[in-house]
Amino acid sequence: MEDAKDYVRMQWMMLQQETPEDFIIATGKQYSVREFIQWSAAELGLDLRFEGSGVDEVAFVENIRDIKKAPAVGKGDIIVRVDPRYFRPTEVETLLGDPSKAREKLGWVPEISVQEMCAEMVREDLETARRYALLKQNGYEMPVSME
């Protein structure tokens, strides 16, 4: 997973080369969906507890550290469920890019960590939700994607 700023910087570096080549733009690190969920929850001041396994796994709110960031969430709420509708039938077991050529030939290394990118995404989504709530509270409806 790459941040757009890192990706665009890598594109620029590639375009500065005399001879075109293919480069893999990746961190070379692998994280689980569970880790991404935990980072997202932490950014909202939530501690989670996972129970079950496979399609029966759920995540409960174990603790709320900042009620202002997640006012509609309560302790004990289930906030994550596995939904088989979103399984990809041709999914590979593992995805991991090797950016060594980009590092060696161009000196490119990602500057933004996956955790930082996750926090930025959550902050933006939270700000969008706050704007929507303010509009709705004042009688204005706007379409919102729930996925």
Automatic annotation (TrEMBL):
Keywords noted in UniProt: Lyase
Lyase in keyword set: yes
Organism domain of life: Bacteria
One GO BP: 'de novo' GDP-L-fucose biosynthetic process
SUPFAM superfamilies: NAD(P)-binding Rossmann-fold domains (SSF51735)
Leading EC class: lyase
Keyword match Lyase: yes
Family that this chain belongs to: Belongs to the NAD(P)-dependent epimerase/dehydratase family. GDP-mannose 4,6-dehydratase subfamily.
Residue ranges occupied by any NAD(P)-binding domain in the UniProt entry: 4-121
Name by which UniProt lists this protein: GDP-mannose 4,6-dehydratase
Needed cofactors: NADP(+)
